[in-house]
Amino acid sequence: xxxxxxxxxxxxxxxxxxxxxxxxxxxxxxxxxxxxxxxxxxxxxxxxxxxxxxxxxxxxxxxxxxxxxxxxxxxxxxxxxxxxxxxxxxxxxxxxxxxxxxxxxxxxxxxxx
Length: 113
Description:
mainly alpha; disordered C terminus
């Protein structure tokens, strides 16, 4: 018998991206890349145990993020999602991701499963 996948809901009210090379026209593509990569990371690696019953966080700090020469919305979105996941994800399951990331703000609603 297969166990249904755990449902995880993450609500990011505000994401502060100081100094990022993204214009307003690129914002929808950046948002889509962040959502897709974060959904993938949470589906594969899960969420940290301390958030399984829900939590509301004012912000999460995950270090610094290095920008490369090619800063397209898709690549930046994946890096930002990895930064968010580093702050809320299952670190043991995703130990292969060795990258430092920018500080970001995220909220995980109570009962998010």
